[in-house]
């Protein structure tokens, strides 16, 4: 999911994804003030990711990056939709990642001739950040808080969200001075405002635990098609009713042997959901059940859907026990899910276990359909389970924008390994790259033990999350190497 290259007029049914860079020495003062800003954005059903760094490989300006989106995402993205420039020295616009249609909020000096010409197509909003800051503070870091007030107006903060900021920010007067200036003096130029709940396109904020409980309840709901109709008509009522059902049927299990694994078990004890835990502990938690299946969720809605599918597999006698894994990267995140996507997950729209899901047979059992994306006969083919799908989708978008030939396979099933699907995919690309979500070669080792091809591997650095640019740079995507005939050095760092 790549950032927009332009800010468009607000449309009620359109997803958004904005990458914001706040650049300058004063950005450091915002770090401790971000919590209420993020809280205000969540009132609009937004996902927010924050990252700090510096331009020019660590030697340039301090940069505070925010990614704001209406749906789940997994990396910081690339490019830039909004730059808030806080310093006075002439900015090097070429280093900011501004694109045609991007927005610039800045305080230009009176000697405009000192500033390089703005790139074509940039929407610039001049704001007297120094003057507004001086009204309430002698510290230059306050310019960042003023700028956040301006940005809150441009993003279309509701009155409720604005009150959250004014109540919680230690420098609330600075924030409000920026907001008031923008509301009086700035005219939005085709700004892409954050959609408000009143515009329709209802969204639900789900925690992993809530999505798991709703998945179990939806699997046993006796309302049939009326269940989905109720969800679309009154999502709040639907959630309340199904959470009440789940509280009566779902058990939370704890294991002294595997204390880091949190397991949820349904009423018949054959479908489980696991929050965290490695493959070995999960298999042990399934108590060696006959014909076990382990499915890996990509996000909250997918966890709900896979629990519905897991129950169908049991009902169709296609599995003895099913475990749905919600990886650790998802467990601490709230996700904003559209009601339409949630309805599709509840109905099991993408898969029907009773009909053999994809019609393919491996070892006498049908397998989950693995989603394929990208070109046939691609130079590079990524394989990613679970939460890593997001960053791979971002990487594919980046590569396509640069004219590169790439593809990806997103398997849902981890046990048993979908060997036929993996072999088929590997046969259509020149080089296979497995993207691991954890610090070990879990998926790559299992592939090497069961498949004929040898992939290269990308593993995130300890304490960091992979980004699309990581994949682009580490994998040298402009190169052409055939990994099907020889092993490739592990490219993890």
Structure keywords:
single chain, 493 residues, alpha/beta, Pyruvate-ferredoxin Oxidoreductase, domain 3, Rossmann fold, 3 domains, six-stranded mixed β-sheet, 16 helices, 21 strands, 33% helix, 22% strand, globular, disordered N terminus, disordered C terminus
Question: How are the SSEs ordered, and which strands pair?
Answer:
Blueprint: E1 17-23, H1 34-42, E2 47-54, E3 62-69, E4 80-85, E5 98-106, E6 123-126, H2 129-134, H3 142-154, H4 159-168, H5 172-185, E7 203-206, H6 208-220, H7 225-233, H8 235-249, E8 251-254, E9 262-265, E10 271-275, H9 279-285, E11 292-296, H10 300-315, E12 321-326, H11 328-331, E13 335-338, H12 339-347, E14 361-362, E15 365-366, E16 371-374, E17 378-384, H13 389-401, E18 406-410, E19 413-415, H14 419-426, E20 429-435, H15 442-450, E21 456-458, H16 468-474
Parallel strand pairs: 1-4, 4-5, 5-6, 10-12, 11-12, 17-18, 17-20, 20-21
Antiparallel strand pairs: 1-3, 2-3, 7-13, 8-9, 9-10, 11-19, 14-15, 16-18
Helix pairs in contact: 1-4, 3-5, 4-5, 6-8, 6-10, 7-8, 7-12, 10-12, 13-16
Give a structural overview.
This protein has helices at 34-42, 129-134, 142-154, 159-168, 172-185, 208-220, 225-233, 235-249, 279-285, 300-315, 328-331, 339-347, 389-401, 419-426, 442-450, 468-474; strands at 17-23, 47-54, 62-69, 80-85, 98-106, 123-126, 203-206, 251-254, 262-265, 271-275, 292-296, 321-326, 335-338, 361-362, 365-366, 371-374, 378-384, 406-410, 413-415, 429-435, 456-458. With 493 residues, the protein is α/β, with parallel strands linked by helices. The longest helix has 16 residues, at 300-315. The protein is globular and about 75 Å long.
């Amino acid at each position: 999911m790549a950032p927009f290259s332009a800010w468009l007029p607000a449309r009620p049914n359109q997803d958004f994804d904005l990458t914001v860079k706040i650049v300058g020495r004063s950005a450091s003062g915002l770090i401790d003030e971000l919590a209420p800003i993020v809280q205000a954005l969540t009132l609009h059903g937004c996902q927010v990711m924050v990252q700090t760094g510096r331009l020019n490989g660590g030697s340039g300006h301090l940069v505070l990056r925010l990614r704001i989106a209406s749906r789940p995402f997994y990396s910081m993205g690339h490019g830039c939709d909004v730059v808030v420039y806080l310093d006075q020295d002439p900015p090097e616009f070429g280093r900011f990642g501004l694109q045609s249609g991007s927005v610039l909020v800045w305080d230009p000096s009176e000697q405009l001739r000192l500033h390089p010409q703005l790139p074509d197509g940039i929407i610039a909003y001049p704001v007297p950040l120094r003057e507004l800051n001086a009204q309430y503070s002698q510290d230059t870091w306050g310019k960042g808080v003023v700028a956040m007030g301006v940005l809150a107006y441009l993003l279309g903060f509701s009155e409720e969200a604005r009150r959250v900021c004014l109540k919680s920010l230690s420098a609330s007067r600075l924030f409000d001075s920026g907001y008031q200036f923008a509301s009086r003096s700035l005219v939005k130029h085709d700004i892409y405002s954050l959609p408000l709940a009143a515009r329709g396109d209802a969204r639900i904020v789900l925690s992993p635990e809530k999505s798991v409980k709703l998945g179990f309840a939806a699997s046993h709901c006796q309302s049939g098609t009326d269940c989905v109709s109720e969800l679309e008509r009154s999502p709040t009522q639907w959630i309340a009713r199904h959470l009440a059902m789940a509280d009566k049927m779902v058990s939370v299990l704890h294991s002294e042997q595997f204390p880091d694994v949190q397991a949820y078990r349904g009423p018949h004890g054959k479908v489980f959901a696991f929050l965290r835990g490695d493959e070995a502990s999960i298999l042990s938690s399934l108590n060696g059940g006959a014909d076990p299946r382990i499915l890996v969720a990509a996000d909250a809605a997918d966890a709900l859907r896979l629990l519905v599918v897991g129950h169908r597999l049991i009902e169709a006698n296609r599995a003895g026990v099913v475990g749905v894994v919600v990886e650790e990267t998802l467990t601490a995140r709230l996700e904003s899910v559209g009601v339409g996507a949630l309805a599709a997950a509840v109905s099991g729209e993408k898969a029907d276990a009773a009909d053999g899901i994809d019609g393919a047979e491996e070892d006498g059992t049908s397998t989950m359909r693995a989603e394929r994306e990208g070109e046939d006969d691609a130079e590079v083919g990524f394989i990613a389970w679970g939460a890593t799908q997001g960053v791979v989708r971002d990487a594919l978008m980046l590569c396509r924008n640069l004219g590169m030939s790439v593809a990806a396979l997103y398997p849902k099933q981890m046990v048993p390994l979908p060997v036929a699907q993996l072999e088929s995919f590997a046969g259509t690309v020149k080089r296979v790259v497995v993207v691991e979500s954890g610090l070990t070669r879990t998926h790559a080792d299992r592939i090497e033990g069961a498949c004929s091809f040898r992939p290269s591997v990308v593993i995130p650095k300890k304490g960091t999350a992979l980004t699309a640019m990581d994949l682009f740079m580490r994998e040298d995507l402009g190169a052409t190497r055939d990994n099907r005939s020889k092993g490739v050095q592990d490219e993890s760092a």
